[in-house]
Amino acid sequence: MSNLEVEPAELLCDDDSAPRFQLLEGREVPLGGPRAMTVRRTLPQRERSLIGAWCFLDHYGPDDITERDAGMVVPPHPHTGLQTVSWLFEGEIEHRDSTGAHQMVRPGELNLMTAGSGIQHSEVSTPATTRLHGAQLWVALPDRDRHTAPFFEHTEPVPVRLGDATVRVFVGELPELADHASEARTFTPLLGAQLDLPAGAVLDLALDPTFEHGVLVDSGHATLDDEHEVSAAQLGYLAPGADYLRIEAGADAPLRILLIGGTPLGEPIVMWWNFIGRDHDEIVAFRERWQTDVIDDADRAGRFGHVDGYDGPALPAPALPSIRLRPREQP
């Protein structure tokens, strides 16, 4: 998914020290004009830029897209220095990218695209889709790997019972489910999983204490460690140090959450529009290459390649801010 904001904020991201628990509220962001799909963006924000290497989390739906002219229509757009993680609860999205990958995104299946040195892709909901509901996440690549050649992976995580919960690990692994680790390639220690609990159920979940974690409630209501209340569309942040997490579903409805985590990235990054870099000049160069190679000359093969099969123009980059983008110093 692209960040389609006309004036994207400069995002100066690092691993700030934080309290043991933070409750983060998402902000609503329209994607693409007056009939746009609205997403709830819970990462990044002022209170927290990163959870491990997870640097972006958009949560959307359930949306009835029969009431609009179109559902999700995101034209070809670029990425650098990151991985995109597409995860659906309902609906179907068609993915095309400049590696030649053409893959449907369906509920319970992972589409992971590693942008590395540069990629472009499009995302369009299929004609048969009447409801869209899911999440789009980005992972920042560490400096040593961020110029790797782009590639694409599709996996189908196996649902596993853990107590009363059903768990799908789509990135990394959980300590109790090491035999069901994700096959997807990551570049830092990470975790991404969907957990479904029936109403009133309690799960004591073993954690890697070197990880920081985030709990995004998609539906229902969660109580974490018997004291922290997290409602639908909220993200609960847990600092490193805990070796288990107690998750209790509210008594009135089933609970569905996304659990993300990882070791703190330990590197300041600059994230602007769909690019991740390390300084202002690098972001400027990424934007210039995109505008020159793709927008001004759609047939020119360059850093971002070409998306075959998409009927329409690529997405121009917005104007850069008038001030220099600066990475934040590490505490």
Descriptors:
single chain, mainly beta, Jelly Rolls, seven-stranded antiparallel β-sheet, 1 helix, 5% helix, globular
What overall geometry do the principal axes of the alpha carbons give?
globular
Q: Report the CATH superfamily.
A: Jelly Rolls
Termini distance?
Answer: 31 Å
The CATH topology, please? Jelly Rolls
How many domains, in number, for the residues? 1
InterPro entries: Pirin (IPR012093), Pirin_C_dom (IPR008778), Pirin_N_dom (IPR003829), RmlC-like_jellyroll (IPR014710), RmlC_Cupin_sf (IPR011051)
Cofactor: Fe cation
Domain Pirin C-terminal: 194-292
Domain Pirin N-terminal: 38-139
Question: How does this model look, in words?
Answer:
This protein has 331 residues and is mainly beta. It contains one helix and 25 strands. It has a single domain, classed as Jelly Rolls, CATH 2.60.120. It has one helix at residues 280-295; strands at residues 11-13, 21-25, 27-31, 37-43, 54-64, 73-79, 82-90, 93-97, 102-105, 110-114, 119-125, 131-140, 151-155, 160-162, 165-172, 190-197, 202-206, 212-219, 221-224, 228-231, 234-238, 244-249, 255-262, 269-272, 275-277. The chain has a seven-stranded antiparallel beta sheet, with no helix packed on it. It has a seven-stranded antiparallel beta sheet with strand order 3-4-5-12-7-10-13, with no helix packed on it. A four-stranded antiparallel beta sheet has the order 6-11-8-9, with no helix packed on it. β19 and β20 form a beta hairpin. It is globular and about 55 Å long. The model has no long low-confidence stretch (mean pLDDT 92). InterPro entries: Pirin (IPR012093), Pirin_C_dom (IPR008778), Pirin_N_dom (IPR003829), RmlC-like_jellyroll (IPR014710), RmlC_Cupin_sf (IPR011051).
